[in-house]
Amino acid sequence: MRILSVVGARPQFVKLAPIAQAMKGRADHVIVHTGQHYDALMSDVFFEDLGIAEPDFNLGVGSGKHGHQTGAMLSGLEEIFEQVRPDWVLVYGDTNSTLAAALAAVKMHIPLAHLEAGLRSFNRRMPEEHNRVLTDHAADLLLAPTEVAVDHLKTEGLAARTVLVGDVMTDVLFKTRDLVKGRTETLPLGMDAGNYYVSTIHRPDNTDDPDRLKQILRSLAELDKPVVLLAHPRLSDVAARHGFDLETGAIRVSDPLAYPQLVNAVMNSAGVITDSGGLQKEAFLLRVPCTTIRPETEWVETVELGWNVLVSDNLSALTAAVQRATPQPTEESPYGTGKAAAAVVSALAGPR
Question: How confident is the model at residue 13 (pLDDT cuts 50, 70, 90)?
Answer without folding.
Answer: confident
